[in-house]
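User: I'm curious whether this sequence folds into something compact or stays loose and floppy. Could you predict its structure so I can see for myself?
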Amino acid sequence: MRLTEEQEELRSAVRSALTQHQGSEAWAVLSGRMGLAGLAVPEGDGGAGGGARDVHVLMEELGRSLSPLPYLGSAVLTAGALLASGDEEACGRLLPGLAGGTSVGTLAWAEAGSWDPAALRAEAVPGPDGGWLVDGVKEHVLDWPGTDVLLVAARTAAGVSLFEVAADGAGARRTPLVTMDGTRSQARWVLDGAEGRLLGVDGDGARCLERVRDLACTALAAEQVGAAGRALELTVAYARDRVQFGRPIGSFQAVRHRLADAYVQVESARSAALGAAFAADLDPAALPRAAAVAKSVCSEAFSAVAGEMIQLHGGIGITWEHDAHRYFKRAHGAGELFGPPARHRARLAAGLGLPSAC
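Assistant: Here's the prediction. I'll summarize afterward.
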């Protein structure tokens, strides 16, 4: 599995942009000037018409820099949910803004720490004028200042469905959350009779969410690989420079073994993440299995490498003056996002017809 020359050029361009720009300015450059918010959006909807492998490259670079940009929530989750719904009117109205970065979206999905569509308890009932009224509490919603496209998963008499809800409308209330990982903002959304517009077919939401979950896990796995790779780079550099007992600590066999093990974990995770991206583009039927493998392998690899980063940096690794704690916190938060590794191994086992301990 190899990326194309154009995709490697994309990597260089994104890395350069993230080196020169940060925060909202970086988002303006990536989404506006470079058009990357619409990387996986069809050209007919204002996007670039790329695929999961292009998203993989971008997410690796965002992970490498621990970027707080809303790409995962807006370009992957929100745009992905719109496309999965098949609602042509909503896609034509919302996707151009999301693709151009002039609007930012989020998908309110998880409840009580679960992303399983079967666990949804939020409800939607028919309202006046052919609309819907949505009630429920959504946790772990990826957040960004100025979010203006809000999609909500809720249960109707027909099953799980997707709704477009006005982010600043009556009955929709957002509360920012204080999380361990300060580089990825989250919010809680409380919906109390909020007016919603049905997206796609009533009762088809579970299928849409399963598709979005696999694409999100694939994209997140790439981010985890990028972050783990950068954590290892920084740790190797420190081991070369830090002198103890008259020699660099990287020359001690015990340290070299630990770094070698970390390297194997990063490269194994990279293969799993790429496998999922290739499946998304070339073999959609294999994506659920590949995405479950990637989310499980990459979450555990990033956590292990981030832990080694803390350990091998010694005392400085647990201070605010060094970035090691930021990688460690991102590893913890990303590992739980869209479900922990054990949940995805259970999903993988179920797909293979095997018993699971979860």
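Summary: The chain is about 50% helix and 15% strand. The radius of gyration is 21 Å.
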